[in-house]
Please model this.
Amino acid sequence: MADPVRLGGGQGFYGDSPRSVEGLLAEGVDYLCLEALAELTLAILQKDRARDESLGYTRDLPRYLAASLPAVIDGRTKVITNAGGINPAAAAHAAKETAKQMGLSGLRIATVMGDDLMTRLDPFQRETSTGLANMDTGEPFDALPSAPLFASAYLGAFPIAEALAQDADVVITGRVADAALFLGPLIFEHGWTPDDWDHLAAGILVGHLLECSGQVAGGNFSGEWWTIPEPWKLPYPIAEVTADGAAVITKPKASGGRVDIDTVRHQLLYEVHDPASYFSPDVVADFTSARFEDLGADRVRVDQVRGKPATETYKALLAYHAGWAGETRVAFSWPDAEEKAKVTAAILAKRVEMAGIDVREWSFEWWGINALGGPTVPPRAEGDEPPECVLRAAWRCDDERTARAVGRELVPLTLSAPPAGLTGMGRGMAGASTELLGIWPTLVDKSLVDPGVTVTVEEV
Amino acid sequence: MPRLALRELCAYRSGDKGDTSDVAVFAYDDETYALLVEQVTVERVRALFGAMVRGEITRYEAPNVRALNFVLEGALGGGGPKSLRSDNLGKTLGGALVRLEIDVPDAIAARRRPRPDVSWADAILDALPRS
Model:
């Protein structure tokens, strides 16, 4: 049993850099936790699986495993990941294939299943206390605009701890709470129990700090961001967690970035809603109880975290098809840049209407004016004209063909629109279209989900 | 008493959950945090964001990290995978919040944060083959 347990946050999203693994393994971590999922990611995986039933997991998993399995085989670390997405069995298969290709044997791969609610959705909808109502809007399940494409519950950390107790070297899950990837090994190593609320809360806080990889170590930093050392070598974080739940957040020594009280406290509140009641499957953590101390040399200590009993429900995410979107960008220069952009948007809308193309929703943004800030941007002084303006137009249609047809109405404006100086459409921009998915967050009774949760370990 | 935008005094971070955006603002000392608690109210934040936020706004206090967290519902055009906005994940809403201005005593106005010095980036870019 390691005390402290050293956890590495080697991935913060699908698309992160597998090279992060090198720095963490060189520094030495007992567990390499790879967090691959976000709401948007599940939507991407759904589109993959709709095309090919053997997909639905994050396809950079083999690259992460190629970088980490040699250390796993040497007994230096174990890998825990939710790369399984909406198809953990397929991810486990890909992991086995990777191990085989690397000529490795004796590797124990665990798969945690049971987060997928699709096959049980009808009885759950009838039996669960919430009726699967939308937890944000309160709308009843009947209001779901179209049939769900996936339905995943956010499982907790105990199945991961169970997999480790079965001697797993690699643990692959589907949708578990992001921070549970980090809490799982702490439960296993420190023997924390399901009603150890303060310890579980401490583990969730550590997981929350590490789950966004570089974001706790100088990434996306809004303090004196230009002083972050060598940001192109941004490190991935390490937590050293003792059995009492106290932790030190740090980073590999040979790296850029920074871990200090500011980088850590900014990440503490990232996407948490009420910081005094941060809901996770295993505990409700009070992040306002945590005490932080900057130890210097890229080390921040956190302790005294308090937890409250977990709720009787899991959060679950359903997704439904919400149409198709297209988008394009066109640039205008001074003089009259903003006015030209507006007129072009109006001409595009009229041409689309004349062509009988049905657009359900438009979005027009004026980049360089107020595209990102919207109404928070104060009006300009009279006569204060911007040097340029980019019109960014996006639209939603019922089907892909229609979404593409909208973009084609823009191209002729290159020579045939009144505003002079239309440029910058880029290469192939007007044709792009993507499927939109609506997200339906809900709650489902743990007592219904838990009997379906399984942990299987296979040796390859 | 000077009136300063929060960008002069605070750091920020924002993100998404569904159609809800969390926007946090961080003071560097207890005196500034007290000013945030007093002046950065839900009403002022609602007035700042205007039509950009369609739902409820809730404010949470985190004195241990000298921060306020604002939860803006209906702020992301339907949520990440559905939104037509270029910032469909609310990453820039923190920067929008620190436009808000508050009244500060002279002593705190003197603690204004420095502006960026990115001469090191210029040096990197100048060394590249560029058109």
In short: The helical segments of chain B are 30-39, 42-49, 93-97, 106-109, 119-126. The longest helix of chain B spans residues 30-39. DSSP finds five helices and six strands in chain B.
